[in-house]
Amino acid sequence: MTDAYDPGREGAQMSFARDMSYGDYLHLDAVLTAQHPLTDAHDEMLFIIQHQTSELWMKLALHELTAARELLCHDDFRPAFKMLTRVARIFDQLNSAWDVLRTMTPSDYTTFRESLGHSSGFQSHQYRLIEYALGNRNTNLMKVHEHRPDLHSMLRAELDRPSLYHVALDLLERRTGTAFPARTRRLRAPHQPVAEVERAWEQVYRDPRTHWDLYELAEKLVDLEDYFRRWRFNHVTTVERVIGFKRGSGGTSGVPYLRKMLEVELFPELWRVRGAL
Ligand code: HEM
Q1: What Enzyme Commission number(s) appear in the record (predicted)?
Q2: For residue 152, which of 79, 112, 145, 210 is within the disulfide window of CB 3.0 to 4.6 Å?
């Protein structure tokens, strides 16, 4: 006779022969059988799970960004703000995740690095979609997806849509009654800082009460970029810690390439305007 506590006696559902269970709903069979280490190295599982979970969070970030952009196209600020805050929190979550990966030493990594071949996060189509959705549209980086027409056309479709920053600039232009040069609307190029845009943001920051929606939007964007920058910085620091200045498995210079990416500015005028106030 056992006196162990039995939640079933208090009504907990205990049989799922005919009912959808937790695992069924979440398709855990598919998720938990998607880890296939290529070596016996103990740390390869950490490496795989860290990348897979990052990809899942990126999937959610894309879901939120796409919806927020759509809402902003209809001047529907409130729910869009909630989603943009969520994206910043996702990056915060990804930032904390580096602490787990940092427990892997260079000696641990070399036990399986050869097995990766040329695969690298550099080929993450979701990461590239996030960059394109935000406005950093370097089309040279599409080439690594040419062997996958489905992913390639997903990236092309994203480039045909205005980015989140394009949408923000449309709102800024309309609501402050300014006219921006046509180059602010180019869809297939990274956004370059434009003096008229900075001046319009300056109007907003000098009089937040009159332009409260734009003011709040600007701060949401800065917040998002702040967390995104921290992700880039954590990545490059972890990479230096693990492989030093070796070339990346994707074939770039490695740390020098990633340091160059630290210079990317998603919403440049929003950072510049701070110095003008
Ligand atoms: C020990 C762990 C890691 C190392 C040594 C590493 C190394 C690198 C290197 C050297 C690059 C430059 C491209 C190349 O030549 O390969 C790169 C790019 C990239 N990695 Fe990692 N990485 C690690 C972990 C991660 C994780 C956990 C993620 C999460 C998904 C990730 C995502 C990316 C992305 C998205 C890029 C492209 C960045 C860009 O183009 O701006 N990496 N990584």
Answers
A1: 1.13.11.11
A2: 145
